[in-house]
Amino acid sequence: MVAASPKHSLKAELDKIAELLSVLKQEQQDLVAADIEHLSSLTPHKSALVNDMAALASQRHRALAAAGFEAQEAGMEAWLETAHDAAADSLWQELLEQTREAKELNRLNGLLINKHLSTTQGALQTLRPQGPGGAIYGPSGHTTTSTNKRGFIAG
Question: Is 70 exceeded by the pLDDT of residue 140?
C-alpha cells in the first residue's frame, strides 16, 4: 500500500480552517452583541472543527513520517523544499496564513470574554455587602445589617 502524500490533507485542512474562521467571526459578533445564547450554540461546532483539524494534521504528520520527514510543521517545510510542488506550497502557505488569522481572532475573542467576565464580576461585587456587618437585604426586602455570621472551624 502506498502512503498518502503530505499534500493529501491540505485542501481538507484549508476547508476546516475557513469554516473555523467563520465560526470565530460569528463568535466575535456574538461577544460584541452580548448574545450569550447564540454564543453558547457555537461552542460544540467550534470544538468539532478543532478536533477535525487535529485529526487532519495528524494524518499529514503520518504521511510526512512515512516519507522520511519530521512529523511536524518543520518536516512539512522540508518536504515542500524537496517536492518542488508549487500547488502544495501554495496550499501550505494559505493554511499557515489562515491559521495565524484564526489564532489572532481567538486571542481577540478571549480578550472580549475577559472584558465581559470583568464587567460581570464588577456588577456582582456591587451587590455584595461591603465591610463587616455590611447592609444586606433581609427576608422582608428591607436593608438589615448582618450580625449572624457563621464561622468555619477546621479540626
Answer: yes
